[in-house]
Specification:
Number of strands: 0
Distance between the termini: 55 Å
Helix content: over 70%
Low-confidence stretches: none
CATH architecture of one domain: Alpha Horseshoe
Structural class: mainly alpha
Shape: elongated
Largest sheet: none
Radius of gyration: 34 Å
Number of helices: 23
Oligomer: single chain
Strand content: under 5%
Order of helices and strands: HHHHHHHHHHHHHHHHHHHHHHH
């Protein structure tokens, strides 16, 4: 996974944080004292003002009460004050109120959760993680979305080991896309790809979801395990719509595993979605490597109709004709490739093939004349020496 992919993934995960972590809007029971009658009256007045969208007045009413030292502090008044500041988009004041609510009532789940969410917004990730983790342990249902949010916060605070430990725990029994995506991304960055792959394999036994197959493929490829990577991609492609990029990657992996006959159909599939000379070259090369010369020749001739000035395609045609012992036409095709190739490095790579074609076609003199040209001579010396040795024979 490259840097660009990692940054995109982390953006997705942070965005996900906001989707799964709405601010809690109700308050749990607390062991602290009940609200006084005066406090209840002030709270009801503030709520009525809030419902009329008179937020400033509601805040003023509450502030007047809580700032009066003669009145006893109460967690719910602070909590509701925090909610009002949230509506005003004043993160710092809402955080202060939620933190005070946590202090007054340490078992106040929603206050811890909301404080954690705002700390995340303020990019105080380490503190956010602590608050969210506390909220998770306070929740009776042990809401995994809360501890997942804590893991994201730990990761953002450069405590990826803590994040991975949490994710490793929750993905033992929860295989949702967001959990496994974060687990995979952070695991790969910590070089724990083998551990991640085992977890993904286990998840696949439970449910063969497309996103798990793609995560498994990416993880296997990060470990340079092409055999496993292509296995996951192939299974994925059987039941899901794939992009030209994915088809090409599958083809490339099969070629890397010396299975060009398996690569060719994927390149062909990619070409049906995107007309790209690079994919076309890979497709033609895979047919040649698979020794499917008739199909390769037909496809190459079609390619040359579309790209008549492409030296690489003329070279591939020459290879096919050489392999099928049509040496004279092979020589003509490779000569055409050499003539169209302006870059000397590429011409040098083609020169040995050109030499062999010339020798088998009885065109040694013509080939030598072509390569002896002043602009080419020093770059094609090795091929020229081979031709000279054939001439002496």
């Amino acid at each position: 996974m490259n840097k660009m992919e990692k940054s995109v993934l982390m953006f997705f995960l942070i965005l996900l944080f906001y989707l799964i972590m709405p601010l809690a809007s109700h308050a749990a029971d607390c062991k602290s004292e009940k609200l006084s009658n005066k406090g209840i009256f002030v709270l009801e007045e503030a709520k009525a003002l809030e419902q009329k969208d008179q937020l400033d007045k509601a805040i003023k009413v509450l502030r007047k009460y809580v700032d009066n030292k003669r009145n006893k502090d109460h967690h719910y008044l602070e909590y509701f004050l925090g909610q009002l500041y949230v509506e005003k988009k004043d993160d710092k004041k809402s955080l202060k109120a939620f933190e005070k609510a946590c202090k007054l009532c340490p078992e106040f789940l929603e206050a811890w959760q909301n404080a954690g969410k705002i700390l995340f917004d303020l990019q105080e990730y380490a503190k956010a993680a602590d608050y969210l983790e506390k909220a998770y342990y306070l929740s009776k249902e042990k809401d995994t979305d809360i501890i997942f949010a804590a893991a994201l916060a730990y990761n953002q605070s450069k405590q990826s080991k803590k994040a991975f430990k949490i994710l490793d725990k929750i993905t033992r029994s929860h295989f949702s896309q967001q959990y496994l995506t974060a687990y995979t991304s952070i695991g790969i960055s910590l070089k724990k790809g083998r551990q991640v792959l085992k977890r993904l394999d286990r998840a696949l036994l439970k449910k063969e979801e497309p996103y798990i197959l793609k995560l498994a493929a990416n993880t296997a490829l990060s470990l340079n395990d092409y055999k496993k990577g292509v296995k996951y991609l192939t299974i994925y492609s059987m039941a899901n719509e794939t992009s030209a990029k994915e088809d090409r990657l599958t083809g490339d992996l099969y070629r890397a595993l010396n299975a060009p006959f398996k690569a060719a159909p994927f390149y062909k599939k990619a070409l049906s979605k995107k007309n790209d000379p690079k994919i076309l070259k890979a497709y033609l090369s895979s047919l040649i490597e698979a020794k499917q010369f008739n199909e390769a020749l037909k496809a190459t001739e079609q390619a040359l109709e579309e790209y008549p000035e492409n030296g690489e395609f003329w070279k591939l045609k020459g290879i096919i004709l050489y392999e099928t012992e049509n040496f004279e036409n092979a020589y003509a095709s490779v000569l055409k490739s050499m003539e169209l190739t302006k870059e000397m490095k590429r011409m040098k790579k083609t020169s040995l093939l050109f030499t062999y074609c010339a020798c088998r076609a009885g065109k040694i003199h013509e080939a030598r004349k072509f390569m002896s040209h002043k602009a080419r001579k020093k770059h094609l010396r090795k091929a020229l020496n081979i031709l000279k040795s054939y001439e002496k024979k």
